[in-house]
Design goal:
475 residues; rod-shaped; 16 helices; Recoverin, domain 1; mainly alpha
Length: 475
């Protein structure tokens, strides 16, 4: 595995550790835990809590009631989005209300979070610590692998005859490369033969016999350039003369004695060969160590992958299970609704048949006896409905200050927050949100009617002091 991949894996581990730590902190400040701790202080049973929280007395807790409990009763700071998200999680059957059973489950969940909060946080922080330790191991392995990769690159270049050092090293690197084919001793013979041939050819050209075996600076430079070939590019001219003078000084001969010069140059070849062998040995050691560490890391990563897949499969299974349960609940509610509708239809038909039988049996009676109820009953019902609407419109008018036929949040607050009202501005905003059927931010008369019914419930009237007749809203 390349060093870059290992480094990326290490960074991913560190990021995962940071996520785990952040999640642990979030859990420590979760609304569920805050609720659990606040409820524990009250030391009340589930029925007692529901009676206290159930403002409208219907036996269930609505979303608005939960908001009021969190903010007003338990004095916990939380926005509507957070409270509503918790409500949706607790509303297992999706009915829009938390019944006694759901509240019991919820309170057990809150209590469990309180009892295990410290231990859970310790577990998560230990997990984050383990992830950071894994990341440190990966970084260490990445550094070792990077060293091995650098050694391999350098060794490869040397074996290919490339050296970034001085001229002597560049020449020695080429000697070592070519010695692979013919052996190091034969390569030395080949180099010395080239020097002698160059010296002899120059002497013959001058009409002399080269008995002393000497090599001039010009001949050395010509050989060196030819030996380097394309590698001579970038080497300054002064470097050839400088190395020649170095050989003269080292051998104590001027011009350079061929035999001594070759032997001196070969010392650098042997030194470089030892460096190459040492690099090869070091590379093998680092490779072996890196392979060992990588094997451990690969096993760790495979285990992580297996756990991640298992977790994903479990999460998917939970989603499928929840979806199936939700569909089952919806089907059950639909069946229940259909059954009620069928029962209602059956009762209506039965009622119609009974009325028809009564009318048929009483047809011999005087018309005044039969006709009177059929006229009086609808009239009474119509009068009662008109009276209810009159009272509703009277109450509506109290709120509708500008008379535009709709109630704004400000108009509702002006009446509902009078005097010693226990309601808060957030409570009023929640009420508008709850009863605003078309979502236009204001309440029309039809939307006001269910709100008025809610406000006139005994539990609300008892705390708000509502009067429907002369003073439609006294609180």
């Amino acid at each position: 595995m390349p060093a870059t991949s290992l480094q990326s894996q290490a960074e991913a581990k560190l990021a995962e550790a940071a996520e785990v730590e952040e999640e642990a902190k979030t859990q420590a400040a979760s609304l569920e835990l805050k609720l659990g701790r606040a409820i524990a202080k009250q030391k009340m049973s589930v029925p007692e809590l529901i009676r206290k929280w159930d403002t409208n007395g219907d036996g269930d807790i609505s979303k608005i009631e939960l908001r009021q409990v969190v903010r007003n009763n338990l004095k916990i700071k939380a926005d509507n989005k957070t409270i509503d998200a918790l409500f949706d999680r607790l509303d297992v059957d999706g009915g829009g209300e938390l019944d006694m059973k759901e509240m019991g489950v919820a309170l057990k969940l809150f209590a469990k979070q309180v009892s295990t909060a410290d231990a859970d946080e310790a577990v998560e922080m230990a997990k984050a610590k383990a992830l950071r330790e894994d990341a440190a191991s990966m970084r260490e392995c990445a550094a070792l692998t990077a060293e091995a990769e650098a050694l391999q690159l350098r060794l490869g270049r040397l074996r290919d005859g490339f050296h970034d050092g001085d001229l002597a090293s560049k020449l020695a690197a080429i000697v070592i490369k070519e010695a692979k084919a013919i052996g190091i001793n034969d390569q030395k013979t080949k180099v010395s033969g080239a020097w002698y041939a160059a010296a002899a050819a120059a002497a013959e050209k001058r009409g002399e016999t080269d008995k002393g075996g000497v090599l001039t600076a010009e001949l050395f430079g010509r050989w060196a350039r030819g030996f380097l070939k394309e590698r001579a590019e970038g080497v300054e001219e002064a470097a050839f003369d400088a190395y020649y003078r170095e050989l003269e000084q080292a051998t104590g001969s001027a011009p350079l004695n061929l035999r001594k010069g070759v032997n001196k140059f070969w010392e650098r070849v042997e030194e470089l060969k030892e460096e190459v062998d040492a690099l090869a040995s070091s590379l093998e050691q680092k490779r072996a160590l890196a392979r060992k560490q990588q094997k451990t890391l690969v096993e760790m990563m495979m285990a992580d992958l297996a756990r991640r897949r298992e977790k994903e499969e479990a999460a998917q299974a939970a989603i499928e299970e929840a979806r199936a349960a939700k569909q089952a609940r919806h089907a059950a509610r639909a069946a229940e609704k259909a059954a009620k509708a069928a029962q209602k239809l059956k009762e209506e038909k039965s009622f119609i048949r009974r009325v028809a039988r009564r009318r048929s049996n009483g047809s011999a009676k005087p018309p005044s006896v039969v006709a009177a109820p059929s006229v009086a009953e609808p009239v009474a019902a119509e009068l009662a409905a008109k009276e209810v609407e009159r009272r509703l419109r009277k109450a509506f008018a109290v709120f509708d200050v500008d008379g535009d036929g709709s109630l704004t949040v400000a108009e509702l607050k002006a009446v509902l927050l009078r005097g010693s009202s226990p309601l808060t501005e957030e409570d009023v905003e929640d009420l508008v949100e709850e009863f605003d059927a078309n979502g236009d931010g204001v309440l029309g008369f039809d939307e006001f009617a269910p709100l008025w019914e809610f406000l006139n419930m005994d539990a609300v009237r008892g705390t708000c002091g509502i009067e429907v007749d002369d003073n439609p809203m006294a609180c």
